[in-house]
């Protein structure tokens, strides 16, 4: 027997339509499904919802869940903001586009393949490092002498 939640919801809805009590539904489901039976309180909750007139057995979206669709418009908007200001933060992009910071982070790193780049020059070079640089770039040596 299919023991998925949607299958169990369908059985509960059917038995509730036949005017079975929630406790009887739980006992029957426990006999058939065994350990894979859903919790007793869940069966009681679903029975209450079906009595109140709910007809859909699928889980309804919750209002606190953010549903953001990744489309080409938001991907290009993120790319455009980064190209305008390469020092922009993920938080600033999220506020600007009114989307989640995690979504912005995924778009930057997965879709655009951007990453942090540290290109600062070292502040203190040893004498060996200085001579090695001068040997690589003779024009820098001339500039320093003039």
UniProtKB/TrEMBL annotation:
Listed under GO cellular component are: nucleus
What InterPro entries has UniProt attached to this entry? Homeodomain-like_sf, Transposase-MT_Hybrid
* Coiled-coil ranges (or none): none
Where is the region Disordered? 124-146
* Comp. bias regions, Basic and acidic residues: 124-136
The compartments listed are:
Nucleus
The record's listing under SUPFAM superfamilies reads: Homeodomain-like
Q: What is this protein called?
A: Mos1 transposase HTH domain-containing protein
Q: Which organism is it from?
A: Araneus ventricosus
């Amino acid at each position: 027997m299919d023991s998925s939640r949607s299958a169990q919801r369908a059985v509960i809805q059917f038995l509730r339509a036949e005017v079975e009590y929630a406790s009887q539904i739980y006992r029957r489901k426990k006999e058939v499904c065994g350990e894979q039976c859903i919790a007793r309180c869940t069966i009681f909750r679903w029975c209450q919802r079906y009595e109140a007139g709910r007809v859909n057995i699928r889980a309804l979206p919750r209002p606190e869940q953010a549903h953001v669709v990744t489309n080409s418009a938001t991907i290009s908007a993120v790319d455009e903001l980064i190209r305008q200001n390469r020092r922009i933060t993920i938080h600033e992009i999220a506020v600007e586009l009114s989307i989640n910071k995690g979504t912005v982070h995924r778009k930057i790193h997965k879709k655009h393949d951007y990453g942090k780049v540290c290109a600062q020059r070292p502040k203190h070079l040893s004498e060996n490092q200085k001579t090695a640089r001068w040997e690589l770039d003779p024009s820098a040596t001339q500039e320093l002498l003039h």
